[in-house]
Amino acid sequence: MAQDTWTAVDEYVTGLLAPPDEALDAAVRAGEAAGLPQIQVSPPQGKLLHLLAKTIGAKSILEFGTLAGYSTIWLARALPADGRLITLEADPKYAEVAAASIAAAGLGEIVEVRVGPALDQLPQLEADGAGPFDLTFIDADKVHTPDYFAWALEHSRPGSLIVADNVIRDGRLADLSDDDPAIAAQRRFHEQLAAEPRVEATTIQTVGGKGYDGFSLIRVLD
Length: 222
Ligand code: SAH
Ligand code: DHB
Ligand code: MG
Prior knowledge:
By secondary structure, the protein is of the alpha/beta class. The chain has helices spanning 3-17, 22-33, 43-55, 70-76, 92-104, 118-127, 145-154, 181-195, and strands at residues 60-64, 84-89, 111-115, 133-138, 156-165, 199-208, 211-220. Strands 3-2-1-4-5-7-6 form a 7-stranded mixed β-sheet, sandwiched between helices. The longest helix has 15 residues, at 3-17. Residues 39-41, 65-67, 70-71, 88-91, 94, 117-118, 139-141 line the site of S-adenosyl-L-homocysteine.
């Protein structure tokens, strides 16, 4: 049982529970046409983000790593009309492609795409008094996941959720001999979670059309 089955099940579930959607499909096509990497969350994962945001009644969302705006659209659609989503993207071309798709999705008023490496942007976000965020989705450069988490935690409220993508990476998370900086960062991130008294967290392994990976789900304690 492997990749073919995971892909078939992802397609089956997507067909019934995340069926074709004009704005989401257009965002993927626009990314493809502009040569962006096709590394967005899968449709079922996008829907999970959407459901999580709705479940907690999120009004304010922060995203690290916009790419073509696919996860952004899933998340922003969970917001009420007076909600707000800020998404941080290092690559100006990606940000431009994403902003166009977000606007075409009718979400231009509630989503702000900020351009530049996320770590460099955080002081300005701070100065703008951004947050607290009800939900933060960490999905940018993987070496900085621990830094993004630390910042997100300081800009959360009791009950906020933080989701970090791509923490398993084909199981490399648990291979202690794997010293790739992006993998080592995921282990540091897990040690950070274990030592952090202000949160409760878990990590879920996932398989699907894009292989074997996983995400961490973190809740800020009351
Ligand atoms: N969240 C998107 C996928 C993001 S892929 C989705 O699921 O639809 C990771 C993104 O992070 C890429 O667009 C990449 O350009 C961006 N990125 C890489 N390094 C970054 C950094 N230092 N700051 C902000 N974004 C970064
Ligand atoms: C990569 C990044 C992602 O956010 C993802 O979901 C899958 C792959 C990458 O950088 O390869
Ligand atoms: Mg990801």
